[in-house]
Design brief:
It is a single chain. This protein has about 475 residues and is of the alpha/beta class. The chain folds into two domains: about 35-260, Rossmann fold (3-Layer(aba) Sandwich); about 340-465, no CATH class. Helices cover about 35% and strands about 5% of the residues. Strands 3-2-1-6-8-7 form a six-stranded mixed sheet, with helices on one face. A two-stranded antiparallel ribbon has the order 4-5. Helix 2 (about 40-55) crosses helix 3. It is globular and about 75 Å long. The relative contact order is 0.11. This is Putative phosphoadenosine phosphosulfate sulfurtransferase. InterPro entries: DUF3440, PAPS_reduct_dom, Rossmann-like_a/b/a_fold. One of its GO terms (biological process) is cellular response to oxygen levels.
């Protein structure tokens, strides 16, 4: 009899036979075709892991308790235990930044990992800087902040490391983010690779992180120049990031868990039983811009920690009720009043943010607009994305309303779901409507508007239309 799926194997629909034909058929329907690499993703990940371990003095797994870092952890242990010359990395260094507002199941899983003989786990409970998208006036929060001890979502774990040389506790504004804190974990002169569960499927930003490199594309040096004043935290360390499972998909992760019998975070079982699909399951705090959309999951699946989360950060009550509405930049956008220019409309929503957050978002918007005009002299339109840059005022309005501090939303994403001809026709049609209505001044375009919108369409697009 052919085996069929049950719950946690459930990246396939319930009852799907687990033979190769049915599994491959389901995957083909859910994902775009892959490029053949001559080996399965698990084998390739093991090869990458062995290379990273062989070419770096030290390695550490950046462990969150989530499914992706679970895969990285187990592959690293498999390779280190299997290859005699790589056993120098055992017990394997595993770094866990406890983000406080996480399910109890995550704490229990991390504790099980810490008790393995081949693991040396460092359990940090530091007030690292986190994004609070629940409030425009208070854009950051700090887990385990000593000044907020009465509001902590969980008791401090007994394994907790609450200090780290070089990490500033006061004032709160000087506290480092987790990426920058990683620099304190890799002092010179040794080369250190942080093994991370970054997968290209998760976002275009993550896909771009590996796509632009042709050699060892899954190994990325920490860019100190981008860290601003927090670059001092690196102390000259020689730190690299390695993404050994960058080409895995969600179903690959859960297939590996099942096939290899890996332990995993049981919080995923609770989310699955609640009907939350595998690609939407997250165990990280729900206060960031993207996780905020799933804030109801915590109330539904993790009521104990949610009872404390509901009072943890400013704005959490409003976010729980309205996170998926236009109040937080989701769904329909508010209409621009007639006679108001788009730059002024954007400025109105920028003014709702606090000082430092407002400055950061404004700088991002200026950079995006400048990037558009480096590529084209065409105007930015209200809704139609420009066919070359993907930019529209609606996209900029989303940035002004939500912040997007981690820059996960990119204007180029707007070009993914339509062909070039359709994009150009839509752009020309909207510009024609604006010219006819005489509202072109509201665009805030620095040059005279084109007299003939359809003259902007490239000749190859016009020729293609004529052939059709």
């Amino acid at each position: 009899m052919t085996d069929t799926t049950t719950s946690r194997e459930g990246w396939l629909p319930e009852g799907t036979p687990l033979d190769g034909e049915h599994v491959r058929g389901y995957i083909a329907k859910q994902n775009r075709p892959r490029i053949a690499a001559g080996a399965d993703v698990y084998t390739l990940a093991c090869e990458r892991m062995a290379y990273v371990m062989d070419t770096h003095d030290r390695v550490a797994v950046a462990f969150s308790g989530g499914k992706d870092s679970t895969a990285v952890l187990n592959i690293a242990l498999e390779v280190a235990n299997r290859e005699p010359h790589l056993r120098r990395h055992l017990p394997l260094r595993v770094v866990f930044f406890d983000e406080e507002a996480i399910p109890q199941e995550t704490e229990e899983y991390v504790r099980r990992v810490s008790q393995r003989d081949d693991v040396a786990l460092e359990w940090y409970c530091l007030p690292v800087q986190h994004r609070n998208a629940c409030s425009r006036r208070y854009p950051y929060w700090w887990p385990w902040a000593p000044e907020d001890e009465a509001k902590w979502c969980r008791p401090m774990p007994p394994e907790a490391l609450t200090t780290l040389p070089g990490f500033p506790l006061w004032p709160p504004e000087e506290r480092l983010t987790i990426p920058n804190t990683n620099g304190l974990l890799a002092p010179p002169p040794h080369t250190t690779a942080m093994l991370m569960g970054i997968r290209a499927q998760e976002s275009l930003i993550r896909a771009h992180a590996v796509r632009v490199r042709s050699v060892d594309n899954y190994i990325v040096k920490y860019d100190l120049a981008s860290q601003g004043k927090q670059a001092a935290a690196f102390n000259g360390g020689n730190l690299w990031k390695a993404y050994p499972i960058y080409d895995w998909r969600t179903e690959d992760v859960w297939a590996a868990v099942r096939v290899h019998g890996w332990d995993y975070n049981r919080a995923y079982d609770l989310m699955e039983m609640a009907g939350i699909g595998p690609s939407s399951q997250r165990c990280s705090p729900a206060f960031g811009e993207e996780p905020l959309q799933k804030i109801h999951v915590y109330a539904q699946c993790f009521p104990d920690v949610w009872a404390r989360m509901a009072e943890r950060v400013p704005g959490i009550g409003a976010a729980y009720r309205y996170a998926r509405t236009e109040l937080y930049g989701y769904g329909k956008k508010p209409p621009k009043p007639e006679g108001v220019t788009w730059p002024d409309f954007i400025t109105h929503y920028l003014s709702k943010h606090g000082g430092k957050a407002q400055a950061k978002i404004a700088e991002r918007i200026r950079d995006v607009i400048a990037r558009h005009y480096r590529k084209t002299t065409h105007p930015i339109l209200p809704t139609a994305p420009h066919p070359v840059t993907g930019l529209s005022w609606r996209f900029l309005l989303t940035l002004a309303m939500r912040g997007d501090f981690k820059e996960r939303r990119q204007e180029s994403n707007q070009l993914m779901h339509a062909d070039k001809a359709t994009l150009w026709r839509n752009y020309a049609a909207e510009l024609e409507q604006i010219l006819t209505a005489g509202t072109g001044q509201e665009l805030g375009h620095p040059r005279p508007l084109p007299a003939d919108p359809y003259a902007l369409i490239p000749s190859e697009i016009k020729e293609s239309d004529m052939r059709e």
